[in-house]
Amino acid sequence: xxxxxxxxxxxxxxxxxxxxxxxxxxxxxxxxxxxxxxxxxxxxxxxxxxxxxxxxxxxxxxxxxxxxxxxxxxxxxxxxxxxxxxxxxxxxxxxxxxxxxxxxxxxxxxxxxxxxxxxxxxxxxxxxxxxxxxxxxxxxxxxxxxxxxxxxxxxxxxxxxxxxxxxxxxxxxxxxxxxxxxxxxxxxxxxxxxxxxxxxxxxxxxxxxxxxxxxxxxxxxxxxxxxxxxxxxxxxxxxxxxxxxxxxxxxxxxxxxxxxxxxxxxxxxxxxxxxxxxxxxxxxxxxxxxxxxxxxxx
Length: 298
What we know:
Blueprint: E1 2-3, H1 5-10, E2 12-18, E3 21-27, E4 36-39, E5 55-58, E6 60-61, E7 67-70, E8 73-80, H2 82-87, E9 89-94, E10 100-105, E11 114-117, E12 131-137, H3 145-157, H4 166-180, E13 186-187, E14 193-194, H5 197-212, H6 217-254, E15 256-260, E16 265-270, E17 276-279, E18 285-288
Parallel strand pairs: 1-6, 8-12
Antiparallel strand pairs: 2-3, 4-5, 7-8, 9-10, 11-12, 13-14, 15-16, 15-18, 16-17
């Protein structure tokens, strides 16, 4: 049995013919395409004089040119102009019963956003659905010179705005570099991925190399490998610098300083010790790190 979309939503009655007999079938509100309705006792007579069986009627629902259905919700696409989407507006939306309803479109609404109108969907004894109005920004095909000039001014005024495709490309690129092992995100409890600030910085560098410098993926991988090697070398250099500073500090504490005063006396000074006397005729200052068995002779 085939019925229109609206009759399936609101409920109806129809007539079918079985074995030459006409029967009236009541279709409840909210019946779905492909659903089977059971008419008890309307089937064939039972064997041996038993009671009649049931008649099973399969319902086919024809599509509607404007509305569609998701459960008990009725869906409709609502075209809006570019100014309405950008500035916001209250638009008139048709309903399945032939009426209309006012829907507020917030400023900055993107194409594809769904606005919900409560209680304007399928109504059954158990539940009431909503009307789901999905915004579709209509792009004008024919613009006059004034409109084109205004659009050009708008494009220049928004040149510095964020790329609307950046987030989509970022997610795709992050997953790609995740598979290549260039970024290693942590796993969340729900099986998702959490990228660190380092991963985001790496992605920006990759985008710079690919978009601004024209480097292909193989080149980017090589550059990243070299940068990792340089980072490792810098870390090793810092460790060696710390060891060198420590060694110089130890040498500073153990060295002797020989200084000749005006009288020719020489003072040999070790860190933490009192000077001892010696003599030299040159009057020069000598720095000397003695060996373990060495001693100074005046």
